[in-house]
Specification:
Helix content of chain A: 55-70%
Number of domains of chain A: 2
Helix content of chain B: over 70%
Order of helices and strands of chain A: HHHHHHHHHHHHH
Mean pLDDT of chain B: 89
Low-confidence stretches of chain A: 1-9, 314-320
Order of helices and strands of chain B: HHHHHHHHHHHHHHHH
CATH superfamily of the largest domain in chain A: MetI-like
CATH architecture of the largest domain in chain A: Orthogonal Bundle
Distance between the termini of chain A: 28 Å
Number of helices of chain B: 16
Mean pLDDT of chain A: 86
CATH architecture of chain B: Orthogonal Bundle
Strand content of chain A: under 5%
CATH class of chain B: Mainly Alpha
Shape of chain A: globular
Strand content of chain B: under 5%
Distance between the termini of chain B: 38 Å
Number of helices of chain A: 13
Oligomer: heterodimer
Number of strands of chain B: 0
Largest sheet of chain B: none
Radius of gyration of chain A: 25 Å
CATH class of the largest domain in chain A: Mainly Alpha
Structural class of chain B: mainly alpha
Largest interface: A-B, 107 and 98 residues
CATH topology of the largest domain in chain A: MetI-like fold
CATH superfamily of chain B: MetI-like
Radius of gyration of chain B: 24 Å
């Protein structure tokens, strides 16, 4: 970088010749990777957008007639599943984020208060985040099983009613959301913890000298300084929760041993990512399916912009 | 101990009891986080009858390994394990290679289209898998590549997270060092191999572990592109047989243990790298 534009050369030369360190190297290196990108990211995205604007049939393929936004309008007006899936996805994402981020922040704050954060805490808190959602779905299917499940056993022991967690259509999506929270807590804790660790200690000393208590410091100094980190974690959590598929698929199918259909009971746990699978790969309605996936892409993109704007590099006030 | 506490600038003196108090919610959450793992391991040594027993038992009443025997006889579990191992190893190697190389050129070279190329590659981690499965399913079936390793591996072969992380670290390579190497006649490739790579092995280890773990857990893509049980990945097949096995819970839980064991071990061995790379870039 520092070798750019040497003063020795006076004659105007082609741009790449002016810099003595210019090489083809970056292009040679990146060419295969950009090819990969073109095939596995760009092509699917363009294909999805294109198909969502056409009345796609397997026979016609690329010659399918253009129908504009018909597929999208149909989703909102006549599609029997889309509104359920959209509502579920948004509520699921919002509730998971609204629980996970404050709870993670609380735990991170707690971890900052104790003398020495042992590796055992880090291990146990972060392990769920690395687990396959499918296996976690199976395990929690057992815990939420209405008859022999641990949860209902505990509820029964203290005399509370024992609901059918995955059998009741009003409850099922929130049962899955609870498991999603369990999976994501560690991530929120870890990121907010590293955010807290990056805050300048001098500020807290000054506040202490001025006589501020822990709660006052938390409210008036820590939280305002942490707002960027919190927005960032919220965006990332939202992005992952919006895409939920594995958990829903496994938990609603097995539900502690009862072989249901994915998204069940009925359509009560449909999400956008699941609807793409059911419409596109089970019912082969490619047009509607790609319209759904394009909507999902748009939603994820919005939160990705938030995520990038509040990225870590911008909240590193202080380095040890 | 007290001397150490009071020397810490951001802690209040004499607040040991407050710290002890904080351990209560932290331990409760830790318990909730760890309970499923403990339950899983203990239950894998129970019979199905005991797993569904009311009231539930905690410690196995009679210790059996029937579940573990079943997964090897009823499922192509060894093959699934091998599939996961192949897919994860190959993608880890390709992701590390491409991430370090791309990270290096993005950090240390000026060239036209640098920003564009960079954003394209990190877009890899932003585009939801649900968006790409349909078109890629069409593509791979037209090429008759269903149930092949190529189909399982290729879409997972690069890591946008890795490119991003490696660029951040590669920026630390001194320009003078590269200039000196060039004077000594080193090619750009040699600079990558002899300078850039050895200086950044630690973050690269983070990328490796993370890629391996992420791909070990893949479900949506393998579900779409495999139809034969022997071509499924490990966690995928355990999840899918959860439906097919019906009430053979002993087998199911033993399968769950086998499929998460490698992750637990890997995380225990490389916890520092995983935690560092996650906190450094805030996700995958």
């Amino acid at each position: 970088m520092s070798q750019a534009s040497p003063s020795a050369s006076h004659r105007p030369r082609p741009a790449h010749r002016r810099n003595p360190t210019w090489t083809w190297f970056p292009y040679v290196v990146l060419a295969p990777m950009m090819l990969w990108f073109a095939i596995f990211i760009l092509y699917p995205v363009v294909y999805s957008l294109w198909t969502s604007l056409h009345l796609w049939t397997p026979a016609l393929g690329a010659a399918s007639p253009f129908v504009g936004f018909k597929n999208y309008i149909d989703l909102f007006t006549i599609d029997p599943f889309f509104m359920t899936a959209l509502k579920n996805t948004l509520r699921y994402g919002l509730v998971v984020t609204a629980v996970v981020v404050p709870l993670g922040y609380f735990l991170a704050f707690g971890l900052r208060q104790i003398k020495q954060v042992s590796n055992a805490y880090t291990f146990v808190y972060f392990l769920p985040y690395l687990m396959p959602a499918t296996i976690i779905g199976i395990l929690f299917g057992f815990f939420f099983q209405p008859v022999f499940g641990t949860v209902n056993y505990l509820l029964g022991a203290v005399g509370l009613p024992k609901p059918g967690w995955l059998q009741d259509p009003r409850l099922a999506i929130w049962t899955v959301a609870t498991v999603e929270m369990w999976l994501r807590i560690g991530f929120a804790t870890l990121i907010t913890y590293s955010g807290l660790a990056a805050l300048p200690p001098a500020l807290f000393e000054a506040a202490r000298i001025d006589g501020a208590g822990t709660w006052r410091i938390f409210r008036s100094i820590t939280t305002p300084l942490m707002s960027r980190v919190l927005v960032f974690v919220s965006a990332v959590t939202m992005i992952t929760a919006l895409q939920t598929f594995d958990l829903i698929y496994v938990m609603t199918r097995t539900g502690g041993g009862t072989g249901g259909s994915p998204g069940g009971p009925g359509t009560s746990t449909y999400t956008l990512a699941l609807l793409v699978y059911l419409e596109g790969l089970q019912r082969f309605k490619v047009g509607p399916a790609t319209a759904v996936s394009s909507m999902l892409l748009a939603m994820v993109l919005i939160f990705t912009i938030v995520q990038l704007r509040f990225f870590k590099a911008k909240w590193d006030y202080y380095q040890d | 101990m007290t001397a150490k506490t009071s020397s810490r600038l951001d802690r209040r003196k004499g607040s040991d009891y407050r710290q002890a108090l904080w351990h209560i919610p932290l331990l409760i959450v830790a318990l909730v986080m760890f309970f499923p793992f403990l339950w899983m391991v203990l239950s894998s040594f129970k019979t199905t009858k005991e797993i569904v027993a009311i009231p539930p038992t905690w410690w196995p009443q009679n210790f059996v390994t029937i579940g573990y025997q079943q997964i090897f006889t009823k499922l192509p579990i060894a093959r699934n394990f091998l599939n996961s191992l192949i897919v994860c190893s190959v993608t880890t190697v390709t992701a590390c290679f491409t991430a370090s190389l791309a990270g290096f050129v993005f950090a240390k070279y000026q060239f036209k289209g640098r920003e564009l190329f960079f954003y394209c590659l990190i877009a890899t981690m932003m585009v939801p898998i649900a968006v790409v499965v349909l078109p890629l399913y069409g593509l791979f079936t037209r090429l008759h590549l269903q149930n092949t390793y190529i189909a399982l591996i290729l879409p997972l072969a690069m890591s946008g997270f890795g490119v991003f992380l490696m660029r951040q670290f590669m920026e630390g390579i001194p320009d003078e060092m590269m200039a000196a190497a060039r004077i000594d006649g080193a090619t750009e490739w040699t600079i990558y191999r002899k300078i850039a790579l050895p200086l950044n092995l630690s973050p690269l280890a983070g990328v490796a572990v993370f890629t391996f773990l992420t791909n070990w857990n893949q479900f949506y893509w393998p579900l779409v592109i495999t139809t034969k049980p022997e071509m499924r990945m490990l966690t995928q097949n355990v999840a899918m047989t959860a439906v097919q096995l019906g009430p053979r819970y002993d087998t199911l839980i033993a399968g769950a243990v086998v499929s998460v064991l490698p992750i637990v071990i890997l995380f225990a061995l490389a916890m520092r790298q995983v935690v560092e790379s996650v906190t450094f870039s805030g996700g995958r």
